[in-house]
């Protein structure tokens, strides 16, 4: 069951990334909606009362407005205003409740908006990129019948690198792991971390040469390290929250895999770092 669930998740992810557009946007919105429900469930285990419905709606608005910005329907300034406006709306909602809110209620609501609304929206921005100076060689790797954009290549390769990092960390850690990485997640080891980073770097360099990027070795190394470390941060942050809430999995949505948040935690912090990494590369060239 675990293998089947994992395979279905992978196929679903591949299809929506290839399709792009509203398919990718709505899929991202759906996943973050389900993950937010799990996050708020963890918060409620701690006696926190977040503004659940308002935050869920606000996160959806952020993701949709980000896509509208990438296709030129919304100006960047208008899209950038959504996060602070929604934050004010969430705080106002908490003020209007019969029972006065607490610092924890506000913090959980605003963090939920940032964590599972704002940060995942960068996958939309990354997918929407259509010109970065590390230009792809379209004759080697082309998706002309789907959506022949640099954003497609970067989104696909980034997802593959996260998977490579997770697989490398698991198998190297299981085989050679002796030194604990963090008390937050006792099963993770420094050896596993090195294995995950190594796998991510090797695959990143392979993609860099395959797509004929400029300075493929240097870009591949930075790309691979960035992906692996950000995936680890996402994993540890979720582990820390589950540990605090005293639960094993964030939910039971996926048989054998736990909740949605358990599956996407490695994908939350990576897109914003990658997006600005490639934007900086663009300006440096």
TrEMBL record:
Pathway where this protein functions: Phospholipid metabolism; CDP-diacylglycerol biosynthesis; CDP-diacylglycerol from sn-glycerol 3-phosphate: step 3/3; Lipid metabolism
Catalytic activity: a 1,2-diacyl-sn-glycero-3-phosphate + CTP + H(+) = a CDP-1,2-diacyl-sn-glycerol + diphosphate
Membrane topology qualifier: Multi-pass membrane protein
One Pfam family named in its UniProt record: CTP_transf_1
Gene Ontology molecular-function annotations: phosphatidate cytidylyltransferase activity
GO biological process terms on file: CDP-diacylglycerol biosynthetic process
Location(s), subcellular: Membrane
EC number in record: 2.7.7.41
Location (main, coarse): membrane
Keywords in alphabetical order: Lipid biosynthesis, Lipid metabolism, Membrane, Nucleotidyltransferase, Phospholipid biosynthesis, Phospholipid metabolism, Transferase, Transmembrane, Transmembrane helix
PROSITE patterns in the record: CDS
Gene Ontology terms: cellular component: membrane
Enzyme class: transferase
Primary gene name: cdsA
Protein name stated in the entry: Phosphatidate cytidylyltransferase
Family: Belongs to the CDS family.
